[in-house]
From TrEMBL:
Boundaries of every NADH:flavin oxidoreductase/NADH oxidase N-terminal domain copy: 2-99, 102-304
Organism the protein comes from: Desulfoscipio geothermicus DSM 3669
Pfam families with a match to the protein in the record: Oxidored_FMN (PF00724), Pyr_redox_2 (PF07992)
Family matches, as InterPro entries: Aldolase_TIM, FAD/NAD-bd_sf, FAD/NAD-binding_dom, NADH:flavin_oxidoreductase, OxRdtase_FMN_N
Native organism taxonomy: Bacteria, Bacillati, Bacillota, Clostridia, Eubacteriales
Protein name in the entry: 2,4-dienoyl-CoA reductase
Family: In the N-terminal section; belongs to the NADH:flavin oxidoreductase/NADH oxidase family.
Keywords (A to Z) from UniProt: Flavoprotein, FMN, Iron, Iron-sulfur, Metal-binding, Oxidoreductase
Classification via Gene3D superfamilies: Aldolase class I (3.20.20.70), FAD/NAD(P)-binding domain (3.50.50.60), NAD(P)-binding Rossmann-like Domain (3.40.50.720)
UniProt entry tagged with the keyword Amino-acid biosynthesis: no
Domain of life: Bacteria
Essential cofactor(s): FMN; [4Fe-4S] cluster
Amino acid sequence: MLFNEGKIGNINLKNRLVMLPTVTNLAQDGFVTDREIEYYNRRSTDVSLVIVEASYVNIFGRFFNNQLGIDSDEKIDGLKKLSNIIHQNGAKAGIQLAMHNPKFKPADFSKEEVQGFIEDFAKAAVRAKKAGFDMVELHFAHGWFVNQFLSPDVNKRTDEYGGSFEGRTKFALEILRKVKTYVPDIAVICRINADDITCGGFNIEESVEFAKMLEENGANGLNISAGVGSTSEYHISPMSIEDMPLLKLVKRIKNNVGIPVIAANKLGFAENWEQILKDNAADFIGIARGLIGDPDCVAKLKKGNGNDIRYCIHCNQACIAYILKGLPVSCMINPEVGREKEFEVKTDNPLDIAVIGGGPAGMAAAVYLAKKGHRVELFEKSDKLGGQLNTAKIPPHKGEIGRVVEYLERELRKNNIAVHLNRNVTVEEIKNMPFDKVVIAAGSVPRKINGDMDIVSYQAVDVLSGDLPEGTGIIVIGGGLTGLETAEFLAEKGKNVTVLEAKDEVGDGVFPMVRKLLLIRLQKLNVGIITKAAINHISDKKLSYNVGGIEKEIKFDDIVIAIGNKPDETFKELKGNDKYIFIGDCNVMATAVEAIRDGAELSLKI
């Protein structure tokens, strides 16, 4: 059913697969850029409908610095280029109209100002039509501006735009009606929350009634999501959230309306997409992060190559996290995002290149250098590829990380790269290798604590790899991501775990959504967390530490060290020679996202 034709309003669609809007930060001062056009060009060939990212209808409602705008007529020409490229690729073009300014609440505006915002949406829809779009989507979800009017715990207005359910829905319905009045001949979809998933927020009972009202007022389709800023794990679910978390809510809304419904958020694999349609839970499958990671996923599915799809692993480390930092969208498994043209260049001077190290940086470097036209061989000292990703996938809820290794291994095979496992190459061997260039991607090694602690302790990486402490009472020293995940891993195996962290709080630098969910799980597992802890000494299965100048003591059976890694310096004497290029952790400590991108970007320089 995925490739059956469909229809939304007056738009005929060639299949049931829709590219959902995601902010890219590829615009410049609200205007369309060449990078943005290429981004959509790369992703619009095989889906039936592309809904271009959240575009602000007024400057007040611009949430991201590099967000796309549709607030002035000067932007129409650039938007027309976007709709044209989407149409040339055989898809229909939609654009999401949005505004969001979290500094303000609904009660902060006069009635006249609210009606001015309604006019802004309608004028933006007119611009969308002039720019050649077939459809507009009205963003009424995710805690953004209109969603705040819908929410009983946020909307404290006392006039006709607040109070009762009818009052809280009035703003959204008037936007819809005015848009339909101004542009009656293009389709209008509304993106709504099935549930805010907050205490006292907009819930599924109200959402069902709201969906009916939207249909009655002219909406041609609904795009169903959930969650607001504080519960965003329900519209950009990370790997710790089970697949298809919203499907029951989506189906309930669909059962109450007669217009098409789009399902979204972590919908599993292609076979799940098909089943969603067969079960009549939704009419269309919405794909967002999946098309960031693999622009060809629909083409592969259509050709029967579903096993080759580079499925999103829901890490949120380079899509959502980057966007929130104001950076252009990226992806752990696809460093080409927003830079597609850069990676199309082939070399006219093929070189013989050795890559030392089969972790994420080394594998990515080998793949992208080979794609560019170089002759590449990869040497890995262990019996398998993947480096630290092999331990990163072991903690609870982290199994999807393994798909990164599987994908890179497939790419190595596709590009006929010779891989030599169990090859612990020495410095002298490297010096004598008959290669034009040697890429050093040796990775990193765990940091150790000074003194005698290493005699009585385990390293987190070893614990995750299977060297489980025998004792019951475990102290994990280090409250970063690895320490917290190791604590969860041990607690799930019945250990009594306490985490000691020197900083003011644990999870420093961890993406807030991931940190929040991890801390909730640790609390349920009764994992103790002690912050601002300065360790004094260890003796006789007792650890002494200071907190705020007060000395305390804790008994233990075993200690696990998780205080981070440092670059592997095995090959440091080769630095400074142009023949040898250091990438990944052995050069600068970084995340897997940065390691893979580092490896890929090397191909742009050689």
